Target: SbsA Ig-like domain-containing protein
Amino acid sequence: MNEVIIDRTNQYSTIGAFVLKFNAEPAFVESNDTTWIENSIIITPSISTGYQGIGIAENRITFVGAEGFSMNTEYSIEVTNHIKSKSGIALTPRKIRFCYEPSTPCIF
Model:
């Protein structure tokens, strides 16, 4: 089950900055065979954003300078982790899906 909480703090001076915190299973298990991880985000409906980072381990995603974000809109967000092994084989992408509802966190 994933639960999403919007945390709009004054942590960032950029207008529109917000943090998505969620409880979810780790997207991957880091091992000695892991060489790199490339994260991608799909947000529906889309918003214009330059995200500062995807901290899967910390169960949070930080967006900075997000334009078009509304606290009154339900969002569906999908995070995909692309993992490569030392042998160069691309492993199956792992995905975390979660959404934010204005009234209550979406749990599924």
